[in-house]
Design goal:
2 domains; single chain; six-stranded mixed sheet; 2-enoyl-CoA Hydratase, Chain A, domain 1; alpha/beta; 264 residues
Length: 264
């Protein structure tokens, strides 16, 4: 159901363990002004603390996902630069607080510069056929501050990332799929239904395990391969010693088997 506490520039719905956050400044292609940045940050803080929410989806009101920082405000006061719009509460290199819950980006249109960084900070992306991705920091005369120079090379490789950033040229949805930036491309009208079905698949799993796995992925991908393997082994031993419950596996066994049969 819609959440009346969100500002007009942000729509928030919660249903069946899935929250959908929609950037809602379509007249400005969902560009990030101070109000929207504050609202987005506060919404994610709220959803992180809501035990009824297992998965979060972020998307935009058509025609865009997010055009990045609002250049009118940026050129006038700079009030929407990182840190100033939400009282300096952001983590270094991220547009929102640390989340323990999966965050899916449903990219419905262009995702540009700061909007591209929002997408990159999601755990994975599902794209409409209308999606376009561009890093125009060099065109504007800014440097990325929400992790693009780390996250984009992780997604598509450092050489393609350099080309995107240095040219400012856009990547379409099919290229994004081929290069591994997005997990899948779907017809535009199917974007949210598909994203919500994937979210429901996640929400139907053991949430302690989901969050532990997500944390493990974040820790492993933030370090070297050898250190990542050490972290994985350490976490697996700890989980098996304190959190693994054979009775819980048995309770869920038939549902696990039935779900697997629908996918093979």
């Amino acid at each position: 159901m819609p959440d009346s506490r969100a500002p007009d520039s942000l729509l928030l719905e919660r249903a069946d363990g899935v929250a959908t956050v929609t950037l809602n400044r379509p007249e400005a292609r969902n560009a990030l002004n101070s109000e929207l940045l504050r609202g987005l940050y506060d919404a994610l803080v709220d959803l992180e603390g809501d035990d009824s929410v297992a998965v979060v989806i972020i998307t935009g009101t058509d025609p865009a996902f997010c055009a990045g920082l609002d250049l009118k405000e940026l050129g006038a006061t700079g009030g929407n630069l990182r840190g100033s719009a939400s009282g300096g509460r952001e983590r270094a290199g991220a547009p929102w607080p640390e989340l323990s819950k999966p965050l899916i980006g449903a990219v419905n249109g262009v995702a540009v510069t700061g909007g591209f960084e929002l997408a990159l900070n999601c755990d994975f992306l599902i794209a409409s056929e209308r999606a376009r991705f561009g890093d125009t920091h060099a065109r504007v005369g800014l440097l990325p501050g929400w992790g693009l120079s780390v996250l984009l090379p992780q997604a598509i490789g450092v050489r393609r990332a350099k080309e995107m950033s240095l040219t400012g040229n856009f990547m379409d949805a099919d290229e994004a799929l081929n290069f591994g930036l997005v997990n899948r491309v779907v017809p535009h009208d199917e974007l949210l239904p598909v994203a919500r079905q994937v979210a429901a698949d996640i929400a139907g799993n053991d949430q302690r395990a989901v969050r532990a796995l997500l944390d493990e992925y974040k820790r492993v991908t933030a370090t070297t391969v050898s250190e990542g393997l050490r972290i994985e082994a350490e976490l697996a031993r700890g989980w098996q010693g304190t959190s693994f419950d054979p009775a819980e596996v048995e309770r869920r066994r038939q549902a696990i088997v039935d779900r697997g049969r629908t996918q093979v």
